[in-house]
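Hey all, sorry for the wall of text incoming. These are the two entities for the joint prediction.
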Amino acid sequence: MASRNCLMRLKTFQLSSFNPPNGIAFSRGFGASPPVFQIKWLQAVSHAEKVVGNPTFLDLESVTSHEISNMAVYLKNLIKTGHPLTSTVKELLNPKAKKDLTRGLLVLLVSKAGKHKANEDILPNQRKLAEITEQIHTAHIIHSGIINLPTPNENLEKGNKMAILCGDFIQSRSSIRLAEFKNIKIIELFGQAIADFSAVEFIDEDTYCALDLWTQKTKMRYGTLLSNACQSTLILGGDMDLLESAKNFGLEIAFAWQANIDLQSYKSTTKKEEHILTKLFPPGTPFEEILLIFEAVRDKHINASLEILAKFPQNDACLALCDIAKALNY
Amino acid sequence: MVINVKLTNLLAYSSLAVRRVSHLGKHHGDLPYQLLLSKPNPLFHHKKQIQTVVPSTSTKNVTVPVENIPTADSLVRLDLEGLYEDIREGLSETQPELKLIAQYYFNGEGKAIRPVITMCMARAINFHLDQNTPSVLQKQKKIAQIAEMIHTASLVHDDVIDVADSRRSRPSVNIVWGQRKSIIAGDFILAMASKMLARLQNKQVIILLSQVLADLVQGEFMQLGARENKDERFAHYSEKTFKKTASLIAYSCQAVSVLSGADSTLQAVAFQYGRQIGMAFQLVDDLLDFIATSAQLGKPVAADLRLGLATAPVLFAAQKFTELNPLILRRFQEPGDAETAFRLVLRSDGLQRTKDLARQYCNDAVTQIAQLTPSPYQQALVTLAHQLLHRMK
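and here's what came out:
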């Protein structure tokens, strides 16, 4: 039956994919990552930002548009209601606080990596696309934060309302800006991405086992958007020969990135039994086993990313992407 | 040189057997009639032919009895036959539970006024331009589908925002599946609509319908905000009404005209018709919220007041009964507010003035559409405006 199949596939996976990848150190054991790896990560991201000109996305405070400042007011109201989305929203309203990897940054890097000539710069349209990608992801995060309220609760209802409207607002603006590219393929690609990350909420978890479930969910929630955004930006840049590579790279880096995020939260949580990674496996699976499996997953995708990057022109953006991929194993 | 063709139309119509048609919005089985729907009628094919074959003897408008004029929905019935099945089909390639939610409001129980107007406009413009390419009509049907999908997705979000418990006499989506899944299902419907839109391969149409999305959201934001200054309130209400209701109809009409090959002047006619009809539609809705019974509406009476919304009847009444102003500002939140407002509206001339305004919009819509070459479709769009006004009785 399903669980026995899953168990068997688990064992096969463990046996076949234990190849220590080139140049990647295996980190074992529990507890938070050694600070040196985190520094490496932050450095890689910071350097990458410089390569593409220190972009900012959805900077709500500085944009003077009447609608956006309205939205900022609504987001602040949301915070007042004590809604679970509060921390997400605070980050949104203060984008300079956190120096972390963003989808927008990845798309900008891919835009530049796709340039065959050294003096070519990222096109304004490509910058716009990177911003749109980030915004669509933000809208998704906001809508995913809406909570079910089986019993009436005025405050949380108000919070939900704000979340719905703000998500809708960002989404509709993104649609208009995407339409302005006047490119059918790009609109289709982003439509598919939104359809995928919406549909992931409804997956029947029983139809997948263990890693397959994680892979399917990650692909739909994060993979399609990044993969399709990377493709789109190269369409805008006219770098058609690298489209397939961009598509694959977007997917692989999404997997690697998410695997690392899940791993880090898994390592640092005190309630491992309730963690999403634990729930993928049959009950009683030792924590260390889960850890090893996921480190292998992460490393597999990091390696795949690096292999694909080898096909890009080896410019500073491409190298920055390599550094990010390599630093993902902190 | 303009030859009045209204008399000609009467002669043409009476040569075709037209049975009594049903009221707009109700679909009662098969109504056999011999109006040609999908094939161009040779009688109407060439404007010149009509003018030379039957010279008009009078320039007066002839009033044709209502029974003999086909309504918009009967004219485009065949065009829209598969509309809801096609929409459901387009939403079916996904997770089973999502499919259920996404398809929930597409059961054909709604009035389908938007697809009807869109297709009727498409046919009227096609006739005007002598546009007979089948692929154009196919794309126009897709616009009708897309418009209905956008409308429904906005209903799903609205129901969650308004904490609705029923729609069209069924539990609303948020009651059945919870807020979270409902919102995300709405997003899914929009995403699929945008994919369909992209496949039409017309960049202008894509931009027009994307604007609708932004307008819908902005309309919702506007609805949440109240204007301090009472002189600004009506302008705010009008703008909100355009964004929330009229925008979709206006841009859909314009979009089908673009697909037909209309120039910007003709596009403007289509847009304006859609806009004015849309504004009238909302005004009638706002009016009925006060005077219809809950059985007729499918939802409780004075729902707008309960939601804190000050619609046209209230805004007009407040000009006579200034005590309404503080109630409007506090969105009828205090106990007894909604009842007081309801009473005062009925005592004032608010309802009459709302009717008058709706009539103005309808007349303007008719003036717009009269610029098109006469056809059953053009006439049906006129009739539609009249029937809208009839609803207010």
